[in-house]
Amino acid sequence: MRFLLFEQLIPINYLASFQEVHKAVFESDEFKFEKLQHKQNLLAILAMDGSRVAGFKLGYEHPDGVFYSWLGGVHPNYQKQGIAATCMEMQHSWCKQQGYTRVRTYGRNEKKAMLIVNIKAGFDIVKTFVDDKGRQKIVFEKEL
Length: 144
Known about the structure:
Radius of gyration: 14 Å
Strand content: 35-45%
CATH topology: Aminopeptidase
Number of domains: 1
Number of strands: 7
Largest sheet: 7 strands, mixed
Order of helices and strands: EHEEEHEHEE
Pfam family, one: Acetyltransf_1
Distance between the termini: 26 Å
Organism: Solibacillus palustris
InterPro entries: Acyl_CoA_acyltransferase (IPR016181), GNAT_dom (IPR000182)
CATH class: Alpha Beta
Protein name: GNAT family N-acetyltransferase
Structural class: alpha+beta
CATH architecture: 3-Layer(aba) Sandwich
Strand order of the largest sheet: 1-2-3-4-5-7-6
């Protein structure tokens, strides 16, 4: 497995494979890349098995100056191999190099595996809230 780090844009030759992972992980429609427009300090990490994306991690600077670890996932065929943890470690290392002192992420109770990854990685639960879709969200933060 090799890991690629991209600042601001994911190259077009990875987009179709990225979409396969997104659909498999989130059981939803295609990822809308326009959501990435105007994100400050966007960072994308791709876990690659040959030319196939096996997992990814996306994040960007939140308006309050904290780095927001926004979205990530590992294709079911590649889970339980430490890919999510490696992507997270790479993200945090990059954040430190950029001068960030804290990382924030949100989780949902039904995504237990990600909650466990966050806790094992040293994140603290700082609050909860209900989003505009009526889902309970857990806010995690980690000092770098």
